[in-house]
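User: Teach me something about this protein's shape.
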Amino acid sequence: SGVKGDYSHHLFYIPQAKLIFCGIPKVGITEWIKFFRYMMGSQDYISLPHFKSDRANFFLKSLDPAKAEELWQDPSWTKAVFLRNPLDRLLSGYIDKFLGMSYTQTVFNIGSKDVPKAERPVLTFAEFIDKISSNNTKCQDPSGLHACTDPHWKPQIMTCGLDHLLPKFDFIGNFNHISEHTQALLEKVGIWEEYGRTFDDGKGLKSSEAHLCWVPPPQRNDTSQVYGFNQRGPSGSGKNIHATSSKSKFDEYYTPELIEKVR
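Assistant: First, the predicted structure itself:
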């Protein structure tokens, strides 16, 4: 069976495009959900999408199991996934969740959130890697890598059942070439012109604070700044708009020993 199991949480289906999409955390999934909501006509598609009720409308698991399996087995439906260099993805997750948020407390239960943020302990990157390198397989313990591992650093191969379903995917995009590969995928499934090219991410507008619960659609006088979904600059420039600080900080955080440990 292609669509059963915990990993089905990360499989989305888009009927207009006959597309089944595996969305992996820290591989641009937030932007993809915004795009899917844009296609659905959601007025606040720029908002942080992860707690929006309409997000469930395009979860494959929301379908009757027999219908979901029918779509999965239908060769006319494109199955797509984007993958990222695991070293870059892990560091991006660490910077986002441990330096930017309080995962040391909320996930690993080290220290208390009841004290000011500046006084809370934070796992170093090396300590974090030691934690997830544990041989633990029990879900109640966040250490190690297992079915209950936080999805932001769970290996990509453990998402969407890729350990056995990857050969079923007929489009595998590279996060390092997100602009070109996004356009290629949307052209393949026939939605680039209508939706991909017209997508406005609100960049450069003061109203586009994506952390807010409801962000109105962008209002521009100059639409020449709208380059399309996952694009930067003129369409087809191919620049990676998701090049985060984690890339520039690679040498700062990784030692040869840590690289070997992650691999």
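Now, about its shape. The beta strands are 11-14, 19-22, 78-83, 171-174. The chain has eleven helices and four strands. If you'd like, I can walk through any region in more detail.
User: That's plenty for now, thanks!
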